[in-house]
Specification:
Largest interface: B-C, 66 and 77 residues
Radius of gyration of chain C: 24 Å
CATH class of chain A: Mainly Alpha
Radius of gyration of chain A: 19 Å
Number of domains of chain C: 1
Strand order of the largest sheet of chain C: 1-2
Distance between the termini of chain A: 47 Å
CATH architecture of chain A: Orthogonal Bundle
Largest sheet of chain C: 2 strands, antiparallel
Number of domains of chain A: 1
Helix content of chain C: 55-70%
Order of helices and strands of chain C: HHEEHHHHHHHHHHHHHHHHHHH
Strand content of chain A: under 5%
Largest sheet of chain A: none
Number of helices of chain C: 21
Chains: A mainly alpha (118), B mainly alpha (723), C mainly alpha (566)
Structural class of chain A: mainly alpha
Oligomer: heterotrimer
CATH topology of chain A: Helix Hairpins
Shape of chain C: globular
Number of strands of chain C: 2
Order of helices and strands of chain A: HHHH
Helix content of chain A: over 70%
Number of helices of chain A: 4
Number of strands of chain A: 0
């Protein structure tokens, strides 16, 4: 059903994407997101977890760009550009925090920080 | 004194004298009390009040002299003069019920109904001959005793002296409100006011724990009675719609109606509310006048300075209950049961406390129990519908009991607080003690009811009327009590005032510098009373004798006849006892009982020689023939000495359980009442604590739960879409 | 002018916050005296005491017009008297704190003044929501005073005080909202033409309460429930047994001025609320539940009195005595007749004066000895005669000695309860309205004895007896304060106005009683005439026949059978 809609929408697209439909992009995005999620949940290492969140971020970005292209406007792309820049800043911050945390306890295991336990 | 009166007259003119109420239509028209007595009436309560305010000023300005005493004496003398004028003006005209109301100012005046119904209780004074009778001896004795106290309390000059005379003045003010108030609430004000002064004065030596406890006991015991009185006041108000005597006693729809019904024997037509009023009032009277079961405070009240015991706890305040019954006699007469109750309690108390007095050693306590006993007489007198007998006994008793107490006080003052009759002997033969001893003798003769004394006549009136009016049992009980009274009275006299000279100082002995207690005891010299004490005792000595002459003048009868209690009971001694005029019979019978009592006292306690008619043989202070008798009487004597264990009984059955209940309540309050509140605070905490483990601080578990949550949402969406 | 009464202290409170801390006392004194001055101007020149039953000095601004909520103020003579008490206590509170508060004076005086304003607001409010806002807002300043300036266990006490009273008031709020919702939706159109039928104005709510159920007024059983909801908050505030346990804790932990204001005015917010809401807006509920509330009040009188007797802490004793005393006040209210209601209002004033003074006195001793335990203190008459004289005076006022203030009101409360009910006399007074009776008065009067027991117990321990002072207390001088052994002029100056007021109200209460006649009689008549709605049968059952027949008991205001005696 989704494929039908996608092909319909691409009726008068300037250069029809040969074989690659929106569905493919979304699938890629979903897979990436799932990978990130699984990684985030299963791994204990803070840096890996952080990378996993980045992965999920990018998965969302891919979906946004695909939709943007699909709808023939630039809203999604604009979003992604913002997200990318902010993600860069945030990555710097987060890695700095990770370094600080590592200095505190000489470990990167996430479960060593459970100060918020009730 | 005129200056004080001048100060008051404009005030009284302004607010008082104009408000002299005329008796309502149907009574004798205005002018039944002639002359303008408003200012004089006002002076009686307000001069002592002024005096108490001046004593406060003295305390503030740290007066160290006897000034407060002189202020008091002057103020009270002024009040006495005013009372005398009031008496003259009230009883001048003949016949009819003469009364007047003098209003000072509004106290409580509350219109509560749409029809003009009001709760009115003003500071206004109801004057009739009953009021006059009471105020005469209250102000007169208060003046004398204040003079006495000026010397007696002189070792306490300074703040204590001011405090004493402040309370003394306030007492007279309260007593005036009690007796003169024209409504039940002002009576209640006086009632509680005298209670307060009694509390302050009993606890005058506040460093003594026993004095503090006695003061507390007196106040609380009185409060129990006040509970009854206040309910009686409320019932009166709710039933009659007013608290003012002018209406209660003179409105034909109120007391006169029920009195008439009662006198016609139609008790069935009297509603139970009216019948309940006297019973409630009687409870109040029993509290204030120390009758069984509320009498135990009075003997303990002897912790106070002796002038206080004489004035408050013998002569005046404790007769307030008798006043209440006499004043409300019309409504008492409407309930036979209430009268019966008063007679029963009065006679029983008279006997009970006489038996206790026989076995006490503290002379002040003996006098206290004697007061309780005599008050019982007065209640019986009033309740057998011989109000003139009761009132006359109040009057005579006030004089001779004050005399007796002041003599005890002089002894106590002179012998460093010694009151034990085993440690004093032959005071009369010591230098400077003659007036005291003679006054004591006169007092004892009166109390014992020796023929031709005032006490003899007044007691006789009560006894005769109780036989005539069908209360022979009470009459016999009182006769026996008269014998016991004569015995314990002369036991004191024979042991303390005559016989071999012996004196040990009491516990108030303070060694001089560089002197041990033993040396001080050895060097002890009694100091004889000074001029003020001797003067007062002299006046009272003469007064106690002269009061007897009022009897043949039928003064008390006349006074009562023109008051609200007039016309109640058999004033015309129609009945007979043993076939003769009851009063004549009683002259002989009661004389026999009295003299027998004295003879027994002489035999058991009298010293060798003329004083005890040659039948006594006591040769030392400590012991007497009576001691040998005690073992033969067995536990009765011991129990009487222990005051029949009534105090212990009250403590075990009322005070202790109440205290335990209080502790239990407190525990309940903390555990149960507050516990429930805390439980409600604790329940949310419990809930929080239960779900707290979920907040484990671990990033993964949050992440997993988040994923799970999202999964659930997605699942739900899918399910909803599919369905 | 009324707004000035509220705003002046609050503005001065803000001023204190802005000014340097050395000026805090001065600004506080000026602020409270100005409030008192404004009150006096209102009382003497603007308020017409002869029309005490009417709302006067009304000012109204729209607030939330969709729901008919207004910023509406106005006072009748009852509110005026309580405002007077508040304004009178203001300077006393500030001046009495001079030596007691040494740390952070700005916060202290600022909150104290804000509290003064909030309390005035409660008595001025003529709108249920405005009332509620002020009523709740009083919690904040007192919470601050207790939790910042109290004794050792102050945090717990403040928390309990806040949460307990707040929870209670929420139920009251629910009751108010339900009441207004009912009026907006159930009452027949035209009965109240407000904003969509919504109104929170006291006047409207009171008149709507008099609607018969036929016209959509609340039937008796609904009123009973609403009454129960309304009274919860007020009962906690009063506090009525068994909702009283926060009070002893709060009192013992609070600073002196906090205790004084708590006993003096804040508890009266509860009884005032009962008068306005429970009696005014749900008269049928009041009639139905009066015996229950009265029984609780009587239990409180005796039970709290007994608990007083076993206290060791003087302040706790006086705190429990408040529970006992306020029982009389509530009893008078639910006598539902003129005498009882007036006695109750007068009791609110009198209790504020005498218990406030007792707390002040205890505070003065505490500043000197740093203990309130009766085991450690005793016989102070020797050391502090002036203090002791005042103590005995106010203790007697508290006992209800005639001639002092407590007696008149206590007697009237008891008399009201005695007179209340179907118990009819035969003389010029025929039984009056209400649902209590002599038994209620008789049991409550046991309180007279219990009060005497515990007050004299306290006086006997603290004032009389051998001198006992805490260990290590130097007799000649007190530790850290520059306080003399006995009271200083400032302290005497604080106590004298209270003593004079006690004497005046004890010896000449007539002016106050006069001003209470009209409003209380109006209330008694309202409650009594609401009674006819008690027995109205449900509308659908009312046939013509039943409508003609006298519905239920024909209870009207019984009048005297005048002319019979003539």
């Amino acid at each position: 059903m989704l494929v039908d809609i996608a092909t319909m929408a691409q009726g008068d697209f300037p250069e029809p994407m040969t074989g690659l439909t929106l569905m493919h992009y979304l699938m890629t995005s979903g897979l990436l997101f799932a990978l990130g999620l699984v990684g985030f949940v299963t791994r204990r290492n803070l840096i890996i977890m952080f990378l996993c969140t980045e992965l999920m971020f990018q998965a969302a970005g891919i979906a946004l760009i695909a939709f943007s292209r699909f709808h023939l406007n630039h809203t999604g792309e604009t979003f992604v550009i913002f997200v990318l820049t902010i993600a860069a800043a945030e990555a710097a911050l987060a890695l700095a925090l990770v370094v600080l945390l590592f200095r505190r306890k000489e470990t990167l295991d996430a479960s060593s920080w459970a100060e918020l336990r009730g | 004194m005129t200056s004080g009166l001048d100060m008051l007259t404009p005030l009284a003119d302004l607010i008082g004298s104009g408000a002299l109420a005329a008796p309502p239509a149907g009574e004798k028209a205005a002018g039944a009390v002639h002359g303008d007595i408003g200012a004089w009436v006002m002076a009686i309560p307000f001069l002592p009040l002024l005096g108490s305010l001046l004593c406060v000023l003295c305390a503030i300005f740290k007066v160290k002299s006897k000034l407060p005493a002189w202020i008091t004496v002057a103020g009270l003398a002024g009040a006495f003069v005013a009372a005398f004028v009031m008496f003259q003006q009230t009883t001048g005209a003949d016949g009819g019920s003469q009364w007047a109301v003098a209003k000072a100012f509004d106290w409580i005046n509350f219109q509560w109904g749409s029809e003009g119904q009001a709760l009115v209780a003003n500071f206004s004074f109801y004057v009739d001959s009953l009021t006059c009778l009471w105020m005469l001896f209250v102000t007169g004795l208060a003046t004398l005793i204040a003079l006495y106290a000026s010397e007696y309390m002189s070792h306490d000059k300074g703040p204590g002296y001011c405090r004493f005379f402040f309370a003394f003045n306030l007492f007279v003010f309260s007593m005036a409100c009690l007796v003169m108030g024209d409504n039940l609430l002002l009576l209640f004000l006086g009632w509680e006011g005298v209670g307060l002064c009694s509390y302050l004065l009993i606890g005058y030596f506040y460093k003594k724990e026993s004095a503090v406890a006695a003061a507390k006991k007196a106040f609380i015991m009185n409060r129990i009675g006040d509970l009854g009185l206040s309910l009686g006041v409320m019932l009166t108000f709710v039933h009659f719609g007013t608290l003012e005597y002018a209406q209660l006693f003179h409105d034909p729809e109120m007391f006169p109606k029920y009195l008439a019904l009662a006198q016609a024997g139609d008790f069935a037509s009297i509603p139970w509310q009216v019948e309940l009023i006297p019973i409630l009032l009687a409870v109040g009277a029993f509290g204030k006048s120390a009758q069984f079961p509320l009498y135990v405070w009075l003997p303990d009240a002897m912790e106070g300075p002796t002038p206080v015991s004489a004035l408050i706890h013998a002569a005046t305040m404790v007769t307030a209950g008798v006043y209440l019954v006499a004043r409300f006699l019309p409504v008492f007469a409407a309930n036979q049961a209430a009268l019966g109750l008063v007679i029963l309690i009065g006679a029983f108390t008279a006997l009970l406390s006489a038996t206790i007095a026989m076995r006490q050693y503290d002379i002040k306590r003996i006098m206290a129990y004697s007061t309780v006993s005599q008050l019982g007489y007065m209640f019986v007198g009033v309740a057998v519908l011989a109000p003139s007998g009761g009132a006359f006994h109040v009057f005579t008793h006030a004089f001779f009991k004050a005399t007796l107490f002041l003599c005890c006080g002089a002894v106590m003052h002179g012998f460093a607080g010694q009151l034990d009759l085993r440690k004093l002997s032959g005071v009369m033969s010591m230098k400077g003690w003659l007036i005291v001893s003679l006054a004591m003798l006169v007092g004892c003769l009166n109390l014992a009811g020796v023929p031709f004394t005032a006490g003899y006549f007044s007691k006789d009136m009560i006894l005769a009327e109780s036989f005539v009016n069908g209360h022979a049992i009470a009459g016999w009980v009182l006769l026996i009590t008269a014998g016991l009274t004569a015995y314990y009275t002369f036991r004191v006299f024979f042991r303390v005032f005559v016989g071999p000279t012996h004196a040990e100082p009491g516990e108030d002995l303070h060694p001089h510098e560089g002197e041990s207690m033993e040396e001080a005891k050895a060097n002890f010299h009694a100091h004889a009373p000074g001029w003020a004490i001797n003067l007062v005792l002299g006046i009272l000595l003469v007064g106690s004798i002269l009061v007897a002459f009022l009897y043949p003048m039928h003064w008390a009868d006349d006074m009562i006849a023109t008051s609200t209690a007039g016309g109640i009971g058999a004033g015309d001694h129609t009945g007979t006892v043993l076939g003769m005029d009851p009063h004549k019979v009683m002259y002989y019978v009661s004389a026999v009982f009295g003299v027998t009592g004295i003879l027994i006292a002489a035999f058991l306690h009298g010293p060798k020689g003329l004083w005890s008619l040659g039948i006594g043989n006591r040769s030392e202070a400590e012991t007497s023939r009576a001691d040998a008798l005690v073992p033969k009487v067995g536990p009765v004597a011991h129990l009487a000495e222990r005051k029949w264990l009534v105090d212990e009984l009250y403590h075990a059955t009322i005070a202790m359980p109440l205290r335990v209940i209080a502790h239990i309540s407190h525990a309940l309050d903390r555990l149960l009442v507050d516990g429930l509140v805390n439980l409600f605070g604790w329940l949310p905490r419990l809930f929080g604590r239960t779900i707290r483990p979920a907040q484990n601080g671990l990033l993964h578990s949050y992440a997993i739960r988040m994923v799970g949550g999202v999964g659930v949402v997605v699942l739900l969406v899918v399910l909803v879409t599919l369905l | 002018m009324l707004a000035l009464l509220i705003l002046l202290p609050i503005v001065f409170g803000l001023l204190i916050a802005l000014a340097p801390s050395a000026q805090a006392k001065l600004i506080g004194v000026v602020g409270t005296f100005l409030q008192l001055g404004v009150f006096l101007i209102i009382a003497l020149y603007q308020f017409d005491w002869s029309l005490g039953a009417m709302q006067q000095l009304k000012t109204t601004y729209p607030w939330l017009p969709q729901f008919g909520i207004e910023l509406s103020m106005g006072v009748d003579s009852i509110a005026m008297l309580l405002l007077g008490l508040t304004a009178f206590l203001g300077p006393i509170l500030v001046i009495s704190s001079f030596s007691a508060v040494s740390t952070r004076p700005k916060t202290y005086y600022a909150w104290l003044l804000v509290l003064q304003g909030a309390m005035a607001g409660v008595f001025c409010a003529r709108d249920a929501v405005l009332f509620y806002v002020f009523f709740e807002f009083t919690l904040v300043p007192l919470y601050m005073l207790i939790s910042l300036y109290g004794s050792s266990n102050r945090k717990a006490a403040a928390t309990k005080f806040f949460l307990y009273t707040f929870t209670g008031s929420l139920i009251t709020l629910a009751g108010v909202v339900f009441l207004c919702w009912w009026n907006a939706t159930q009452v027949a159109q035209g009965a109240y033409a407000g904003a969509g039928g919504w109104t929170f104005s006291f006047q409207a709510l009171e008149s709507l309460a008099m609607l018969s159920p036929d016209a959509g007024g609340m039937p008796a059983f609904v009123q009973t429930w609403v009454f129960a909801a309304l009274i919860v908050g007020f009962a906690v505030k009063v506090p009525l047994f068994p909702f009283h346990t926060w009070l002893p804790l709060a009192h013992t932990e609070a600073p002196t001025a906090g205790s004084v204001v708590l006993a003096g005015v804040l508890l009266k917010l509860g009884t005032y609320g009962m008068y306005r809401f429970c009696l005014g807006m749900t008269p049928l509920g009041a009639i139905e539940l009066a015996p229950v509330i009265a029984v609780l009040a009587i239990i409180g009188i005796v039970y709290a009195g007994l608990v007083c007797w076993v206290q060791r802490d003087v302040k706790k004793l006086v705190a429990y005595s408040s529970v006992s005393h306020l029982g009389f006040c509530v009893l008078g209210l639910f006598a539902l007749n003129s005498i009882g209601l007036s006695g109750s209002v007068l009791y609110m004033i009198n209790h504020g004066l005498s218990t406030g003074a007792l707390f002040l006195l205890i505070g003065m001793v505490y500043e000197r000895y740093h203990t309130r335990s009766m085991g450690e203190l005793g016989g102070l008459a020797k050391r502090m005669p002036v203090w002791s004289s005042f103590m005995v005076f106010f203790a007697m006022a508290s006992v209800g000695l005639p001639g002092l203030n407590g007696f008149v009101s206590e007697f009237m409360c008891l008399l009201g309860a005695f007179q209340s009910g179907a118990w009819t006399g035969t003389g010029s007074i025929a039984g009056t309205v209400g649902d209590l009776g002599p038994w209620f008065a008789a049991f409550a009067a046991l309180g007279l004895i219990v009060t005497a027991i515990y007050i004299l117990y306290m006086v006997g321990k603290v004032v009389w007896g051998e001198l006992r002072e805490p260990q290590g207390h130097s007799a000649s001088s007190h530790d850290d304060h520059a306080l003399p052994t006995d009271l200083n002029a400032r302290e005497i100056g604080v106590l004298i106005p209270l003593a004079v007021a006690c004497l005046f109200l004890g010896l000449y209460p007539t002016p106050v009683l006069r001003s209470l006649e009209a409003p209380t009689r109006a209330m008694a008549v309202r409650v009594e005439s609401a009674r006819e709605h008690l027995a109205v049968p449900p509308v659908d059952l009312a046939t013509d026949e039943a409508a003609d027949a006298p519905t239920g008991e024909p209870i009207t205001l019984r009048t005297t059978n005048e002319g019979e005696g003539e």
